[in-house]
Amino acid sequence: MTQEATTSGPPQEGAHLPRRSTAERIGDLRRRREQALVAGGARRRGEFGARERVERLVDKGSFTETGLFVRARADGSGAQRPYGDGVVTGFGTVDGRRVCLFAQDATVFGGSMGEAFGEKTVALMDLALKTGCPVVGLNDSGGARIQEGVASLALYAELVRRNVQASGVIPQISVVLGPCAGGAAYSPAITDFTVMVDGASHMFVTGPDVIEAVTGERATAEELGGARTSNAVNGNAHFLAADEEDALDVVRELLSYLPANNLEPPPEFAPGDAPAGDVLDAVVPDRLGQAYDMREILRAVVDDGELLYVQELFAPNILCALGRVEGRSVGVVANQPLHAAGVLDIDASEKAARFVRFCDAFGIPLVTFADVPGYLSGVRQERGGIIRRGAKLLYAYAEATVPKVTVVVRKAYGGGYAVMGSKHLGADINLAWPSARIAVMGAEGAVGVLHRRELAAADDPVALRARLVAAYERTHGTPYPAAERGYVDAVIAPRDTRDHIRRALAALRGKRAPLPQRRHGNIPL
Length: 525
Fold this sequence. Notes:
Layout: H1 3-7, H2 22-37, H3 50-57, E1 64-66, E2 87-94, E3 97-104, H4 115-131, E4 135-141, H5 150-166, E5 172-181, H6 186-190, E6 193-197, E7 202-204, H7 208-215, H8 221-225, H9 227-233, E8 239-241, H10 244-257, H11 294-299, E9 308-309, E10 318-325, E11 328-335, H12 346-361, E12 366-372, H13 379-384, H14 386-399, E13 404-413, H15 414-419, E14 429-432, E15 437-439, H16 443-450, H17 452-457, H18 461-475, H19 480-484, E16 490-491, H20 497-507
Helix pairs in contact: 4-5, 12-14, 16-18
């Protein structure tokens, strides 16, 4: 080959550019990284930056960021195109267990979702699904990025689709650390748990200004969707944190009870202790109408008396909590006699149904404590849909295939008996205390219906009613008719409750519950 032939072709790409040394390239990388890590603007007083939040949540030095050099899309306007596009994404460990995380950065475009922002978040969700690890979202966003138009809306829909695909497969936890408005609010609503910070978090579809302009109604952001409103009034949130540090502590504690995905068991710990069982013998008052705190019973059953209550401020007439028995996670559902006698209403039914379905999806056994007078009656409840919405709890218990153990503590009347983990809905082991009263209704109501004519004709209806009530209590107001039929497996002394639950859960550890083939059921939404 001649020299002319070797030089006559087109010049190689980049031949006209000066060559850069490796050191120069590394220096360029360093400068770009420094630029990418700079906050986009001022923070709100007292809050941490997006990366600070991530670093405070994960184990020290464990976080690996993804998409650091992704930039906002060019729109031809000459607007800034910051690295990261307002969201930090990556993976790390919490207490040595893998998690995927994203943290919205309110200093960049107000944390609003643009196309690149959305694509990064969706890619992280895909990674979490592929690797089977929980995903934690730290939300602080003003909503869709208006200047990016429909692209922003499209990515919200893509994110929600990933949330749905991940539902029941990997745990999803949302932490709202600032505003979460408009389309941004729907993703946390689909995730399993939402944590909000008192006085700092707000979550609503439409803000106060727009509502006033459209409807004339006035409300502050706190009244409309503040942390307390979302925890106590509308039930949109599950945990109320005092500050950002407390919110991250809640996430860490919550993760300690949960498996990485639906194919793995929850983490196991060394078995803990419980208070002396004999305290339970004196918890339930002898007088039927007298209230007591169900939490005293729960503390005496779970390891070390420790429980993480879910939606503690919402529908307080029912308790939902995560705890451990012999070092293994359990989900606890219990009526709370301190509030409305533990009656089941619309809010209580939906709260418990959601919790039962979560536990079932992730293989967490259910322990139920029943002291329930039934479903709440009244015009407001009927018009609010107590039939349809109360049926959600029936559906959830009947659908659940995890080990289910039920303890009837006192009242179990009517539909309340059936729904609170009865044998007839598929509970595996049902126990009752001697104080249990399992019947269609309470003695007073039953006597009024069954002996109406006798009472009307009696010379002393008060004395007759007292005798009839006492007779009903002796025959129907005990756990033994149910035990005779096998609806209750054992009547136990209260002090032995933890031991019976421990043994039942151990026996049910290998439970199999095949289901008919179907796409999914049709829960009464």
